[in-house]
Amino acid sequence: MILSDDELVQLTRKMRRKAQIKVLVKLGVPYRQRPDLSIVVFRRDLDAPTEERSPSPRLRLPPARGDLVREGREMDPAGPGLRLAAGAR
Q: What is the pTM of this model?
């Protein structure tokens, strides 16, 4: 089952959603967010040892397509900015 809104407030001692998320992250408590942005914390994750907790989902980004790099230039993996490709001016 999941924690109620009152239990989530009691756990985090915060009323605002963003503040609750910060506390959950600091405590290492995995959480999920519903499409309406409400927070879901599974009771089993609070009772389980840290090693057995399900991980919080990570943000998945699509791979970069390179659309913003001009022809004849390539991205410098060492840092920001652009460098000339070999043979280009």
A: 0.55
